[in-house]
Specification:
Elements lengths: L1 H30 L3 H10 L1 H30 L7 H17 L5 H8 L6 H35 L4 H12 L1 H6 L12 H4 L7 E2 L6 E2 L2
Helix pairs in contact: 1-4, 2-3, 3-4, 3-6, 4-5, 5-6
Keywords: Membrane, Transmembrane, Transmembrane helix
Length: 211
């Protein structure tokens, strides 16, 4: 009876975690003030913006798959798990990371979702994996800055314009940034110009009219 009670409580907490993550996403969407400009840009820059959003979605799926593979490899040191279990634990970890400072709750939840007796080791393995991942990201980012600093300085390069487009048109990036300006006056001139200026997308050098 006691074991069954623990399962019910655990299931309740997991559902509560999902609802909390959903509430956080909803709150961030409500806080976003430039929906009108976003949809106007989506309408007049349909294919470039849709392509970038689809690319982000595809990369998110790949990221979750890689996270699951990484966690399965790490947790394999203490227990053999199916792909379904590792995917579930990774998703719950992501949800917890969304609502905790610095994603601190992610390794905790991954450890707690393991069976009794393995949770402390699971937490330590998950935390170690997160630390290693952050180190790799910092080193990779530093290398990227060094290798691309000359490219980004040239406004007429395809790389620079692609980078600019991703930063300016990415809805996900704007929603994740709490300091994103609420006024559209901070948007680039060719976005503020609206439909009267035609459909523009920075490809190389000057803006190209796609209309």
């Amino acid at each position: 009876m006691r074991r069954r009670h623990h399962k019910v409580v655990a299931r309740f907490l997991q559902w509560g975690l999902s609802l909390a993550a959903l509430a956080y996403i909803t709150w961030r969407l409500i806080q976003f003030k430039d929906w009108e400009l976003f949809f106007d840009t989506l309408y007049h820059q349909r294919w470039p913006l849709t392509g970038l959003l689809c690319l982000q979605l595809m990369l998110a799926v790949i990221n979750i798959a890689l996270e699951s593979a990484k966690w399965r490899q790490l947790s394999g040191a203490i227990v053999h798990q199916s792909w379904h279990n590792t995917l579930y634990q990774v998703v719950k970890g992501i949800q917890t990371g969304m609502i905790t400072p610095a994603r601190a709750g992610e390794p905790v939840v991954k450890g707690l979702l393991l069976r009794s007796g393995l949770r402390t080791k699971g937490f330590l393995l998950s935390a170690t994996g997160s630390i290693i991942q952050n180190v790799v990201l910092m080193l990779g980012g530093l290398a990227g800055i060094i290798l691309t600093q000359n490219l980004t300085a040239a406004d007429n390069t395809i790389f620079a314009n692609l980078q600019k487009g991703i930063l300016e048109y990415s809805l996900i990036t704007t929603l994740q940034s709490p300091s994103w300006p609420s006024s559209c006056t901070s948007w680039p001139a060719y976005l503020r110009a609206g439909p009267s200026s035609g459909n523009y997308w920075p490809i190389s050098g000057p803006l190209v009219n796609w209309a």
